[in-house]
Amino acid sequence: MRFRHGTLGIWVVLLPLLTVFAACQGGEGPGNTGPGGAPEEISITAVYTGAEQKAFEAVLGDFMESNPGIEVTYRSAGDELPTVLETAVRGGNPPDLAMLPQPGVVADFAARGALQPLDFVREAVADGLGEYPVRLGTVDGSLYGFLVLTNNGSPIWYNVDLFEEAGVNPPGTWEELLEAAETLKASGVSTYSFGGADGWTLSAIFENIYLRTAGPESYDRLAKHEIPWTHPSVKEALGYMAQLFEDPDNIAGGPQGALETDFPTSVTQVFSDPPKAAVTIIADFAYGVITDSTGAKPVSDFNVFDFPSIEGSEPAVVGGGDSVVMFTDSEAARALVEYLTTAEAARTIVTEGPWSSLHTDLDPSVYPDPIRRGTGAGLLEAETFRFYLADLQPPEFGATVGQGLWKFFQDFLLNPDDVDGIAAKMEKAAAEAFE
User: Fold this and answer.
1) SS3 323
2) Which terminus in the chain has less CB density within 10 A, N or C?
3) Which domains does the chain have, with CATH numbers?
């Protein structure tokens, strides 16, 4: 999930090894087997714990049911995943497979020769997930990872009662969003709830705006620092973003209060009693925060609309997700990688867990409720999908708490009039990071 990505900066730091083991057991039968006919054993490591671990184990369980000669052991490293994998790789004893949360981490392990190429599924990934995930996971011409679990980072969640009381309909365009914000404020409630204490929540807003105003080609170029952060397209997007921040009275707690509000609180305070704001701009995993931490009911109390079109832009989604990588090449490991490219795996992923999928053969009707069905369909229906831009940067500039882009967007929340100044600071930091 996106809110774990603050750990990116410690991927290259060695700390004491910590793992939590949870095994999924598979049945015996024909298929790939080890010596003496015993099941061939492979391991996969990821961050998932609790309900997410149970859901991921369901995916592995379905695979083992179809491949009874293979036994998969899931090893949960929790938030210690960077340390666990780094230590294991340096010690020459990595897991067979892992789920990695940032494309940059995939590229780093690949560049160091730690990963095995996945070119044997390149065509399946392109056919099932699209060409962009192939490009995202390709290093020096070979595929080393692809998105298996995805989140939609482009929904806007809203309090249904507040919209109805103000006579506001979910907006479809940027102009309609700004008009709705004024109407909601006039009804006596702040429009926006920002989780500014977590800088990625603000970065995601910029990424959504930039993808719509500058388009995917410029998005990709900015991600690689092929155009500067002082480029007119960046300043244009910052100008749009400033329109959300410019009225302190229309932000729950004001700008300073927003900087003291973390991601979960920015969600729950929209649906508290009384609510402190009408909307929050957060990825699809906000659904679990709402249902677990408030009494709000889907559709009747809370609902969602897509990030609005800007100047006629086509439907687009920014998001994140976890990619599968292979440290050890074997028939069993390849079989699991191949399974994870299928619509069958995608179905279990979205029905058992909190995740979404980019798989084009997945019928959105399989999502377990109307809200997730809508956000899941949004991924499939979008003209363009792009990974969170901050997560594609060097960590000191991109996804690190208290510095780089996350810090610059926090500063911009306090001073939205300083488009030129914040762009200049971003460019200076980017130039240093990309040296």
Assistant:
1) strand
2) C
3) 2-151+318-383 (3.40.190.10), 155-316+390-433 (3.40.190.10)
